[in-house]
Structure formats: C-alpha cells, structure tokens
Design brief:
The complex is a heterodimer of chains A (66) and B (159).
Chain A: H1 2-17, H2 26-33, H3 37-65
Chain B: H1 4-13, E1 18-21, H2 22-29, E2 37-42, H3 46-55, E3 62-63, E4 66-70, H4 75-80, E5 83-88, E6 91-96, E7 98-99, E8 103-104, H5 105-110, E9 112-117, E10 120-125, H6 127-137, H7 140-158
Parallel strand pairs in B: 1-10, 2-6
Antiparallel strand pairs in B: 1-2, 3-4, 3-5, 5-6, 7-8, 9-10
Helix pairs in contact in B: 2-6, 6-7
Classes of the chains: A mainly alpha (66), B alpha+beta (159).
Chain lengths: 66, 159
C-alpha cells in the first residue's frame, strides 16, 4: 500500500514537474506563464545580473589561485 | 548592472517606433532562457533613429562593433544605416531594419501584437512570427527557443 502510494506520488510529481520531450522544464515554464510580461522581463534582468555576479566571483577566485 | 527592462522603458518613453523581437521578446512571451540584449526592429528614418539616440543619451551609448565610437548620429549616417548595434551602461541594444523570416519593419509591425507594460505600451512580435524568425535564424539556441515557444502555445491553448 505504502509502495503504491509512493509510486503514485512519483508519477504525479514527474508528470507535473517533468521535462517535455524537448527537455523543457514545465514547472519553470508554468511559473513564467503565471507572471506578467513585465515581471518576466525583470526576471530575465535579475537572472542576467546574478549570472554576471557569479562569473565575476569565479574570475576573482581563479585570479587568486594563479 | 544590466537592465534590459529599463532600456525598453526608455524606448517607449522616447516614442521610438519599434517592435520588440529576439530573445527579450521571447522572455516576455514566457521563455525561461536568459538573454543578454534587447533586439528591436525599428523604422530606420532619421527622426526615429534620433529618438533612439535621445533615449540612451545619458547611458554612454557606443557602437558595439567599435566601442571607441560614441553614438553621434548624423543625417548622412541615418540615411545609410541598415542596422545599429549599441552598447550602453545598462546593456546591449540591437536595432534591426528587418527580421530574417519575416521581412522589413512594416512586415514585422503587421506580425506584432500590443504589449502592455506598467511604463506604457509597445509592440512585440507575435509568438507565431517569432517562431518563424527563430527557425529562419537556424542557430542551435534558436531551436531551443522555438521548442519553448511551441510549448508556450500548447500551454496557452490548454488554459
């Protein structure tokens, strides 16, 4: 019974949050579609700046290691 | 600090005649891939190009292929430009006279929809036209965007 329940949960979560055949994360896509276009544009800015800050931190770290 | 949303807001505030295209348009439609620039298709008339220049005047705009050249458009330059690739303090802006797979500005405008933002309204290339444009570009990352856009269409038709 417990095994079946666990199996159901796994099936449910994988169908809801799983990737499509093209490898698209549906949960991320659904989150994005729940936002307004302006919120999506600002989310892109936030992600872009976060990625840049990570890159900068890595460059500093690599420079120290040299 | 990159702020592509602010660059878009400035284009709207300066009444630039443009259509949002490319990766940032894809993001506005819901695509979760990150893009590093604002791509617009715009009318390459002198008044419109001057409006673009004015919109970014205090952001130290330079020509991206030649960053030693500040953006100081002359009527002669405006008459000969086909595209304009800019770098500003808030990020890169590509101004295109036409979009592969769609056509010139008037064709892109026909294939656009209204995008209402808190800072005003502008035009954005439709999902269908963006799919056609990305398919025509035919680069690896364009195809990933096409898959996202098709999935968005599917999700929207289910709701």
């Amino acid at each position: 019974m417990a095994e079946n329940s666990e199996k159901n949960v796994m099936e449910e979560t994988s169908s809801t949050y799983g990737a499509t055949g093209d490898g698209i994360d549906l949960s991320l896509l659904k989150d994005s579609l729940s936002m307004t276009p302006w919120e999506r544009m600002q989310a892109n800015d936030d992600a872009l700046n976060f990625a840049d800050s990570l890159r900068e931190a890595m460059e500093k770290r690599n420079a120290k290691l040299k | 600090m990159q702020n592509l949303s602010e660059l878009t807001r400035r284009l709207i505030a300066s009444q630039v005649e443009f259509v949002l295209v490319g990766g940032f348009a894809a993001a506005a439609h819901g695509v979760t891939l990150i893009t590093r620039d604002v791509d617009i298709c715009c009318r390459f008339s002198e008044p419109n190009l001057m409006r673009i220049q004015k919109a970014f005047a205090d952001l130290h705009p330079v020509h991206r292929p030649r960053t030693d050249l500040p953006l100081e458009l002359t009527p002669q330059q405006c008459a000969s430009l086909k595209n304009l690739y800019l770098k500003t303090d808030l990020g890169a802006v590509d101004c295109l006279g036409e979009v592969l797979g769609i056509g010139n500005f008037d064709e892109v405008l026909k294939n656009s929809v209204e995008l209402r933002l808190p800072c005003g309204s502008c035009r954005i290339i439709s999902i269908d036209a963006l799919i056609r444009a990305k398919e025509a570009m035919n680069r690896n990352h364009d195809w990933i965007t096409v898959h996202h856009l098709k999935e968005i269409k599917k999700q929207q038709s289910q709701n």
